Amino acid sequence: MIADKKLSSKGGGWLLERPEQIFTPEDFDDTTRMIQETVRQFVEKEYRPVAEALEHGELEHNIPLLRKAGELGLLGVEVGEEYGGLDLPKTVSTVIAEALAGTGGFSVTYGVQTSIGLLPLVYWGTKEQKDKYLAKLVSGELIAAYCLTEPQSGSDAMGAKTRAELSADGKYYILNGTKMWISNAGFAHLFTVFAKTPEGLTAFLIERDTPGLRLGGEEKKMGIKASSTRQVFLEDVKVPVENVLGELGKGHKIAFNVLNVGRYKLGAGAIGGAKGALALSAKYAQERVAFGKPIAQFGLIQQKLAEMATRIFAGESAVYRTMGMIDQALSSLDKANAAEAVLAGIEEYAVEASIIKVLGSEVLDYVVDEGVQIHGGYGYSAEYEIERAYRDSRINRIFEGTNEINRLLIPGMLLRRAMKGELPLFDAAMKLQKELLEPSFEEPEDKEMAQLEGLKKLALAVLGLAALKYGKQIEEEQEVLAVAADILIDVFAAESALLRARRLGGGVYAEMAALYLYQALDRAQAAALSILPRLAEGDDMRLMASAARRLTKHDPTDLVALRRRIAQKVLEAGGYPQPKA
Amino acid sequence: MKFVAVIRQVPDGESRLKIEGGKVDLGGVTMILDQMDEWAVEEVIRLQEKHGGESVVVALGPERFEEAIRTALAMGIDRAIHLVAEGYLDPITQAEALAKVIRAEAPTLVFTGGQQADWDSQALGPALAEALAWPVVSWTTQIELEGETHAKAKHDLDEGAEVVRVALPAVFTSQQGLNEPRYPTLPGIMKAKRKELKKVPVSASSKVEILEQTIQEKSRLNKMIDGKDPVAAAHELVRLLHEEAKVI
Ligand SMILES: Cc1cc2nc3c(=O)[nH]c(=O)nc-3n(C[C@H](O)[C@H](O)[C@H](O)COP(=O)(O)OP(=O)(O)OC[C@H]3O[C@@H](n4cnc5c(N)ncnc54)[C@H](O)[C@@H]3O)c2cc1C
Ligand SMILES: Cc1cc2nc3c(=O)[nH]c(=O)nc-3n(C[C@H](O)[C@H](O)[C@H](O)COP(=O)(O)OP(=O)(O)OC[C@H]3O[C@@H](n4cnc5c(N)ncnc54)[C@H](O)[C@@H]3O)c2cc1C
């Protein structure tokens, strides 16, 4: 054990302990499963008939689709009953995000409405503001947009130039500026706009027909074409002071907290999309004949199918493990001051949310890329669904915080917590240094668990060394932080896959977990060795390098056989071999 | 008025069935509310919406049927009775067990699927009517109540349709075209959790015993026609479909 203390309730706690139990999709209750089925029906019965038209620019179909989603209760999952919502666990919102993944741009329309669109109002709205807008957003009568990004500031959201000045009579704010890449803009009624006031960044609720608010044309996007994305121009827009959302100067809190929620849903949506792409690919591989047999029988195709399934399994396990942690934390909350407490609970797992965002979006990009490859020339044609999946995937690495920003956040947030004494990261790192100097050569009883611990130690060692060497300047060492992030992402995913596979009783799941872990160890070793010479010199460096090798040691395995067996299960299942509860 | 839907849970037609030791293995199969029963449920809900009263589902089958029952409750049915019996029961035995409960409920009418997707049987509806000594209208595509005593219904025949007036209580079985069933809303799903689901153990022995099951396997011929000359290829295709496949 790395640490003696049990920390399972803390975000990032898994880094210092050996967790025994995780939440998995096999733990979904009947309600969650039924909701999943309702979303599946929604996709088949409501979305499918207008999918083509939406893809070809008839964006107005988004509006009745959102209304129907409202009728079904799908817009109020995270809203209280007093406003027509259902106030369900966060897992449910994630399951919905996953089940909607195949709807491409519409899933963005939906996601914006239910996350960044109405959650700011749920958590920061006054009673008057909620009474005015919330129930209508839940029914789909009103559509919401969220305006943070500007032409000159995306990742650097605090660099926003849009200004809000109080009118002479103190009754209005006058807003001027330009917002960029605003999803749902084309048909939104309510815009949450962030602007600078003397106090700092402040959020405003602005109705569509307020004079001075003007929309740009639809952006010509690579993918998610069914979603509306436009610029929003604000010229002397008069916003009543009652429409300030939250406190003056506290807009950054709204902006960042809401992004946390978006991130885990994005991760789940990405996993859903990847399952769809794998199903298309497995089916195609069985039908396409080349050199006298279905291409599914070729080793190089099987290798792809096995890798795709394995990464999906790891990603899915990581997503729902996180949801389990969040829902457990939220279930013990006192409902009285719910908004604050819910936000604190979600914030606690911000590290995991970033991990899932990066992991999910990169699993999806890998899967759609190989999916196109399996389709050969046909994968390059718009006649085949995989082509759209490929284009729709790409945005996920860019919005909700680019993957670079999220990679920096993962070790950044852990270090900040360690400094505040919330996570005994430095104790563990000190202990680890001693341990690295006096290695034990005992054979561990549980090899895979020991390997996971090795990975955790390596991540700690990299973080500890870097913090020691650079102190506050560590922020300038992005490449080092990204190596730590990559190891952390891999270990969280590998551990989630392994713990879940053990509960599932082995089989193909154990094989996928083993394959993922094997590659995680190799990746971690290469990544660590690539930056150690920057963190240490001479004997110190050599000592650390040999420690890195030892911590990521594993016996060679016949990966060819392993992948072929996994591929067999993928082909039998016609896609991702979803575990049965 | 009281409207009863009799439902079953069956394997999803899209899942791949496997045979293990001469028996269908349902291990990896998704189980769903039988689609024809779904039409029955929808019709019962519509009747209740129009005429008031109560809607009830009755199901006879193993514990796992509860999922299908919950679906019906989430669609809008008021309450459920689950006759719990593991293992296979032939339709006559099923009908006898169901009839006891349904007679006690004294409904205005009973609706069930025209065909049971799992055993590919069309017997349950008629057998149930027989056990109740009520009239039956099978393959119903339209129904209208005429007060509490009669219903006018349109139902399919082999090569056409017939409109009938039937004295109530009666048993109706569903046919495609009857309605477009709704699917559960989230509030419906939440409400379903609080609805009454009465479990009644059933000990009946089947009059038919299944000894062995096999799955029909059809291997494809994979016959390829050379397409260099499209006209000749089309002629060859027509010839093959006519002379060998004998489908045109
Ligand atoms: C289809 C679409 C829909 C969108 N919807 C919305 C919406 O509804 N509302 C909204 O407010 N915004 C929306 N956005 C904006 C989106 O959130 C931004 O595009 C995103 O935050 C990135 O900002 P940017 O495009 O300005 O890129 P930049 O921030 O300019 O980034 C460019 C590159 O530099 C990297 N980079 C930036 N800063 C750093 C750093 N400090 N260290 C290392 N690398 C860095 C980035 O990772 C990226 O690779 C949307 C964007 C798109 C494309
Ligand atoms: C935009 C575009 C332009 C083109 N232009 C031309 C042109 O001008 N002239 C022309 O003649 N053709 C052209 N092509 C066709 C192109 O060369 C083929 O698409 C390519 O050779 C792949 O063949 P395929 O699409 O049939 O894929 P397939 O051969 O069916 O391959 C599907 C997948 O199976 C894999 N695979 C196939 N066989 C094996 C094997 N034995 N072992 C392992 N894996 C295997 C492939 O690598 C691929 O991943 C064009 C295609 C496109 C998309």
From TrEMBL, chain A:
EC number(s) per entry: 1.3.99.-
Location of the Acyl-CoA oxidase/dehydrogenase middle domain: 145-237
This protein's encoding gene: fadE
InterPro entries: Acyl-CoA-dh-like_C (IPR049426), Acyl-CoA_DH_CS (IPR006089), Acyl-CoA_Oxase/DH_mid-dom (IPR006091), Acyl-CoA_Oxase/DH_mid-dom_sf (IPR046373), AcylCo_DH-like_C (IPR036250), AcylCo_DH/oxidase_C (IPR009075), AcylCoA_DH/ox_N (IPR013786), AcylCoA_DH/ox_N_sf (IPR037069)
Source organism (scientific name): Meiothermus taiwanensis
Alphabetized Gene3D superfamilies for the sequence: Acyl-CoA dehydrogenase/oxidase, N-terminal domain (1.10.540.10), Butyryl-CoA Dehydrogenase, subunit A, domain 2 (2.40.110.10), Butyryl-CoA Dehydrogenase, subunit A, domain 3 (1.20.140.10)
Domain Acyl-CoA dehydrogenase/oxidase C-terminal: 249-410
Catalytic function, reaction form: a 2,3-saturated acyl-CoA + A = a 2,3-dehydroacyl-CoA + AH2
GO molecular function: acyl-CoA dehydrogenase activity; flavin adenine dinucleotide binding
EC primary class: oxidoreductase
Family per similarity comment: Belongs to the acyl-CoA dehydrogenase family.
Cofactor requirements of the protein: FAD
Protein name (Swiss-Prot/TrEMBL): Putative acyl-CoA dehydrogenase
Keywords: FAD, Flavoprotein, Oxidoreductase
UniProtKB/TrEMBL annotation, chain B:
Record-annotated Electron transfer flavoprotein alpha/beta-subunit N-terminal domain positions: 21-209
Keywords: Electron transport, Transport
Family: Belongs to the ETF beta-subunit/FixA family.
CDD domains linked: ETF_beta
Gene Ontology molecular-function annotations: electron transfer activity
Database matches in InterPro entries: ETF_a/b_N, ETF_b, ETF_beta_N, Rossmann-like_a/b/a_fold
A Pfam family this chain is assigned to: ETF
Protein name: Electron transfer flavoprotein subunit beta
Annotated Gene3D superfamilies: HUPs (3.40.50.620)
The keyword rRNA-binding belongs to this UniProt entry's keyword annotation: no
SUPFAM superfamilies: Adenine nucleotide alpha hydrolases-like (SSF52402)
Lineage, uppermost ranks: Bacteria, Thermotogati, Deinococcota, Deinococci, Thermales
